[in-house]
Design a protein that fits this description.
It is a multi-pass membrane protein. With about 425 residues, the chain is an alpha+beta fold. The chain has three domains: about 70 residues; about 180 residues, no CATH class; about 160 residues, 3-Layer(aba) Sandwich (Protein Transport Mog1p, Chain A). It is about 40% helix and about 20% strand. The chain is built from twelve helices and 16 strands. Strands 10, 11, 12, 13, 14, 15 and 16 form a seven-stranded antiparallel beta sheet that branches. A four-stranded antiparallel beta sheet has the order 2-1-3-4. A hairpin with a 2-residue loop joins strand 13 and strand 14. Helix 4 crosses helix 5 and helix 5 packs across helix 7. The longest helix has about 35 residues. The protein is rod-shaped. The N and C termini lie far apart (about 85 Å).
């Protein structure tokens, strides 16, 4: 279909296709006294005299045209940078959702595919495609429902859709968003996305349509929305402020993360108990082997744990993790035959450790390595902000205790506490 040019006052706009001209006539932006021209015409002609659009003017209600004329905004093809800033604003608005969804799914994938690198890579690829689909779906829904997105409203960008009902409009916008990610962003693959961005920028600078726009000049400039700016700009600043606060909160954990080198790992409940050596739950270069002198069984524990190698005792072991501020006391006791009263033993044990910790909970059952243990939580008697946790495993007249004292309760400390218990209790008889 021929490309049309039209006038708005002293300025000329175009080229646009016939459908856009009809939309401009319907909305009152092109009146009977404005001029039209395309390559098959010898001269400019008033829109009201053009037979191609006679039916569009005939469908207008009497008097409605004059009501829509003033004030008259300029409809011009949107330039590259305006379109870029509008899209970046929309991505910033969606980034918290991407962070939450991506983090949770990635952690779940790591837990499921731990130790299976091909499976983890496949899960990461599927997650990436899901996020791309989400990044395409959310703007498509917004434009299908409201005709715009927050970023496009603020920067005055309008994407024309040749449909009226919701589902055809949604399919149009959803397909266009996918084309933007492929032809304009190279699916975010560096450095390919830089090349595709420069390619589309050059096309738009010479008044060509972008590769992902099927209709020429279907992305137009409207008057920016001041109301949207008043609402959305503070929201974006709030999101940026929250991100800065989160970075400040976790800055103290950077040194710990670097020395620990651990990613989120499976919970200790999922590790089989009957293995001689507990599976490595942290990267190989961050672990070392510890052999339980009493049972002769080995375990892989993080290198951050220090323990006395020259301790001749086979019943008590002290471990310290200076980078996390954690201390662990592991001990073995004989509690008699299988008929010993566990309740009486736990009460007596609680009394014996009252100089170290003050319980804040009752004894409760939990599982480590697939077997039941008893656990009580509390605070250290020396510091109210220091957490203490006592775990007991009883079997066949033997009791293994693990008392872990932790200043605070960060995510890294919680992860390492579970890793340590899983490893240690994997070596007991």
């Amino acid at each position: 279909m021929a490309d049309w040019y039209y006038t708005i006052g002293p300025k000329r706009a175009g080229p646009v296709d016939e459908e856009i001209i009809r939309r401009l006539i319907e909305t009152g932006h092109v009146t009977r006294d404005d001029y039209l021209w395309h390559e098959q015409m010898t001269d400019w002609e008033k829109a009201g005299l053009n037979r191609v659009f006679a039916d569009s003017f005939a469908s207008l209600a009497l008097g409605s045209e004059e009501q829509r004329v003033a004030p008259k905004p300029f409809f011009l093809p949107a330039r590259p940078w305006r379109r870029l800033w509008a899209r970046l604003f929309d991505l910033l608005m969606m980034s918290p959702l991407f962070t939450i969804v991506g983090h949770d799914i990635l952690v779940a994938a790591y837990l499921y595919f731990h130790g299976n690198r091909p499976g983890l890579l496949l899960a990461a690829l599927v997650l990436y495609l899901m996020l791309i689909s989400l990044a395409a779906m959310i703007p498509a829904i917004g434009m299908a429902l409201f005709g715009t997105t927050p970023g496009k409203a603020i920067f005055g960008v309008w994407v024309f859709a040749p449909h009226e009902s919701f589902w055809p409009r949604f399919r149009f916008y959803f397909g266009r968003e996918y084309r933007v990610w492929f032809w304009g962003c190279a699916m975010g693959i560096p450095p390919l996305f830089i090349l595709t961005f420069l390619f589309q920028y050059r096309r738009l600078k010479v008044d060509l349509n972008a590769s992902y726009d099927r209709e020429r000049s279907s992305v137009l400039v409207l008057r920016p929305s001041r109301i949207a700016a008043l609402i959305m700009v503070p929201v974006m600043l709030l999101l940026i402020g929250c991100a800065i606060v989160n970075v400040s909160d976790y800055r103290s954990d950077e040194r710990i993360t670097a020395s620990h080198g651990a990613l989120p790992v499976p919970s200790y409940e999922s590790v089989p108990f009957d293995r001689m050596v507990v599976p490595n739950l942290t990267p190989t270069d961050s672990t070392k082997t510890w052999v339980n002198p009493r049972s002769g069984r080995g375990a892989r524990i993080s290198k951050i744990w220090e323990h006395p190698y020259n301790d001749s005792s086979k019943d008590t072991f002290v471990f310290r993790a200076p980078t996390l501020g954690m201390t662990a006391l592991v001990s073995h006791e004989l509690i008699g035959n299988d008929g010993a009263d566990p309740t009486a033993y736990l009460k007596d044990l609680e009394r014996r450790v009252d100089h170290i910790m003050k319980p804040t909970s009752d004894w409760g059952a939990a599982y480590v390595n697939g077997v039941q243990i008893m656990r009580v939580s509390g605070i250290a008697t020396t510091a109210s902000e220091t957490r203490a946790e006592l775990t007991v495993f009883m079997r066949g007249g033997n009791a293994w205790l693990a008392l872990i004292v932790t200043p605070g309760n960060s995510e890294l400390q919680s992860i390492e506490r579970k890793n340590f218990l899983s490893a240690i209790f994997g070596t007991v008889n």
